[in-house]
Amino acid sequence: MRRRDMLGAALAMPALLRTTIARSAVPVDVELVLAVDVSRSVDPEEQEMQFSGYEAAFRDRRLIEGIMGGPIGAIAVTMFTWSDWHIQNTVVPWMLLDGAAGANRFADAVANAPRRTWLYTSISGAMDFAAKRFGQGYEGTRRVVDISGDGVNNSGRPVADARADALAQGIVLNGLAVLDKTPTPLSLSSALPPLDTYYQEEVIGGPGAFLVVAEGFQTFEAAVRRKIIREIAAAPQSGPLTERFG
Q1: I need a labelling partner for 214 at 20 to 30 A (CA). Which of 12, 112, 199, 243 fits?
Q2: How many percent of the chain have pLDDT more than 70?
Q3: Residue 226 belongs to a domain with what CATH number?
């Protein structure tokens, strides 16, 4: 082979590799990223309620039927925890869920995931990290990020910037706002917007985006189960922008 031909073949390899990878991606109805708040406002008991809520949701028969009822009958899911702008940890890698066995494997992984607590609340950092999780072996008809938390952004870049970047990539941002019953210090209470309003106006976005509000961590399990069932529906639903539990 002539030197020029060899050079042309070498230059064509990256494009060929990308095409091969794209063709080998497993088709799914939804690529779903679960982003779980583990900042210091979430105490160990509340954190356990979050993880138990996700575990129970993926063992629920109604959720499993929802997964199998899609056009493809499968979804891909991963979970990470987040706190400060630079602290995001994948606790469950991407998994294919196409029935009860896959859903229960994911639930087992959530049950065994490490529990850690950090300091600040960087929703923008969670959005940025989540946006980079897609395209890792799966090709969904929709890409959805499920952000759960109990506070407003107080670390990292502005939420508006991270939100705009995610929406530009065609990612849908849904929210699960937990209205913690712990009293807010008087010095902060007047300066902070209601969390449900904040999530509705600053966090969620994209076609069919919605917010679920849990009135305390005790209602988290019911809220997250309803949220995921709605997220994996075959098409974005025209239901209420905000649903409340508690």
Answers
A1: 112
A2: 83
A3: 3.40.50.410
Residue 188 vs residues 39, 112, 182, 184: alpha-carbon distances, Å:
17, 36, 13, 7
Number of domains in the chain: 1
Q: What is the pLDDT of residues 192-243, one digit of tens each?
A: 789 999 999 999 999 999 999 998 888 888 999 999 999 987 666 666 788 8
Instruction: Judge whether 16 lies within some domain.
Output: no
pLDDT(182) > 60 = no
pLDDT band with cut points at 50, 70 and 90 for residue 68: very high
Burial 27-40 (b: 16+ CB within 10 A, else e): ebbbbbbbbbbbbe
